[in-house]
Amino acid sequence: MRDGRHHAAQGSRRWAAASGAVSAVAAVVTGELLAGLLSPSLSPLTAVGGVVIDGLPPGVKDWAVALFGTADKAVFVAGMLLVVAAAGAVAGILEQRRRYAGTAIVAAFGLAGLVAVLTRAQLTPGAVPVPLLAALAGALLLRYLLRRLREDSDAVHPAPKGTQDPGRRTFLQALAAGAGVTAVAGVVAGIWRGAASGISTARERLQLPAPASKAPAIPAGAGVTLDGMQPLVTPNRDFYRIDTALIVPVIDPETWSLRVTGMVDREIDLNLADLLAKPLIERHVTIACVSNEVGGELIGNARWLGWPVRELLALAGPQAGADMVLSRSSDGWTAGTPLGVLTDERDAILAVGMNGEPLPLEHGFPVRMIVPGLYGYVSATKWLTELRVTRFADDEGYWTPRGWSERGPIKTASRIDVPRTGRRVSAGTVMFGGVAWSQHTGIGTVELRVNRGPWQQADLAPGISPDTWYQWQLGMELTPGQYEVQVRATDLSGKPQAEERRPVAPDGATGFHTIRVDVNP
Ligand SMILES: Nc1nc2c(c(=O)[nH]1)N[C@H]1C(S)=C(S)[C@@H](COP(=O)(O)O)O[C@H]1N2
Ligand SMILES: [Mo]
């Protein structure tokens, strides 16, 4: 029965591949669980992911680079798991042909994980054995499953009618058990990661002091009450999130400290208790991402509590010739901020609070920088651990060698939120509303135009401060038909926003936000 044998071999190869895939994913999950115990901020999977992310060539189009939102992260991790499963399938087939051939692949993946872990900024001694133990677990499971499978193939084929095939049955049971335990453990690891291993409770217990200087009261009428407008102050849970971190860095507030190094007269090491004992200020500041497209949502306004960076820098004493502060996060990410911006009169702060709470973990707990007027990629370092006073000539932030400008002042811009583009509205007075921003300068006027007609001035609500966005509204009489509506803002110095359409790279998009409105009879 050559044919039957051929089929049996093919079937068994398929099962070997399945065994390999399950074993490889089981190894990754083992790594995640062990890392949860031994090194919460660094697992083999996230280390390899971090190496890949950092190594992506600057030209990768649409890798809206300074942008790496939450959804992208999930897709990226799923992609990595697929690659691991595919490699595991190959390892399973090879192992079946030649003992140890597949084990060698699993071991190679373990070594790659080890190398990746060793290169990451979050490296701790506890992280080192994890990839090796994970690979060992994967290799043992693979060999166990293949032994079950072999015992099955060695049995007489096909099994006589009406009798059970004990070997294949044990194999299938073992494979199903392996896959099931891996799936459950994977879900557990995912939830555990989400809970960030106890740091959430440390965050909830943290008591923020009252500010020595309270946020100026929000002026009456600053918030425009039109259906569909976004709140003037963005709730924490709705605040956009952008960073390169595959898992939220976990920092114990008890052991956190911020070091000031580089071209300073005195190096400083500041812990959280010391920071919280300083006279803190509270300010509303609107931060924005350089990857925010015209009309985009990568912008948010919050009430931040923190200590002015200039006070800390004054204690350290920057030396002559220094012109940049390279801020670094616990995962090694960096931003280069002009020293002048951190020492002038603006409220650049080491923030510990966001809208009355300790910083949420994904927004930089326990301490981040907030700098009015600069895009996040050159200023808003989350999970902050070091300020290095240096020179632009000697150092560069994370995104600079990846195709983004060394300097990143926020460009004046405006957005129409009401009505949404493409929306049908009724003829008569159509209400338009939205936001405009020019951080640290402030907005002077907002205008709308219909079908490229004359600009009409909108009602500009009072801003909370020049460092925040402003809301605006305008009612326009429109007869039935289809319209193109555009908005433009002019800052308080009289400079209008740029009309020329430019992409987000290298230093922020420009152009007028343009929407289409269908007016019904
Ligand atoms: N540690 C760290 N901080 C970071 C980043 C990052 O990748 N890592 N991204 C920056 C960018 S590009 C932006 S736009 C802001 C976004 O801050 P948010 O996620 O709190 O909105 O964080 C900045 N701080
Ligand atoms: Mo960003």
Topology:
Blueprint: H1 2-38, H2 44-55, H3 70-97, H4 101-119, H5 129-154, H6 166-195, H7 199-205, E1 257-262, E2 268-271, H8 272-276, E3 281-288, E4 299-308, H9 309-316, E5 324-329, E6 334-338, H10 339-343, E7 349-354, E8 357-358, E9 368-370, E10 384-390, E11 413-418, E12 424-426, E13 428-437, E14 443-450, E15 456-457, E16 459-460, E17 470-478, E18 481-491, E19 514-520
Parallel strand pairs: 1-10, 12-19
Antiparallel strand pairs: 1-2, 3-4, 4-7, 5-6, 5-10, 7-8, 7-9, 11-13, 13-17, 14-15, 14-18, 16-17, 18-19
Short description:
With 521 residues, this protein is of the alpha+beta class. The protein is 34% helix and 22% strand. Helix 1 (2-38) runs parallel beside helix 6 and helix 3 (70-97) packs antiparallel against helix 4 (101-119).
Strand content: 15-25%
Order of helices and strands: HHHHHHHEEHEEHEEHEEEEEEEEEEEEE
Tally the helices: 10
> What is the SS-derived class?
alpha+beta
**What would the average pLDDT be, to the nearest integer?**
93
Describe what you observe in this structure.
The chain has 3 domains: 2-194, no CATH class; 236-402, Sulfite Oxidase, Chain A, domain 2 (Alpha-Beta Complex), CATH 3.90.420.10; 413-520, Immunoglobulin-like, CATH 2.60.40. It has 10 helices and 19 strands. The protein has helices at 2-38, 44-55, 70-97, 101-119, 129-154, 166-195, 199-205, 272-276, 309-316, 339-343; strands spanning 257-262, 268-271, 281-288, 299-308, 324-329, 334-338, 349-354, 357-358, 368-370, 384-390, 413-418, 424-426, 428-437, 443-450, 456-457, 459-460, 470-478, 481-491, 514-520. Helix 1 (2-38) packs across helix 3 and helix 1 (2-38) packs parallel to helix 6. The longest helix is centred in the N-terminal third of the chain and has 37 residues, at 2-38. The mean pLDDT is 93.
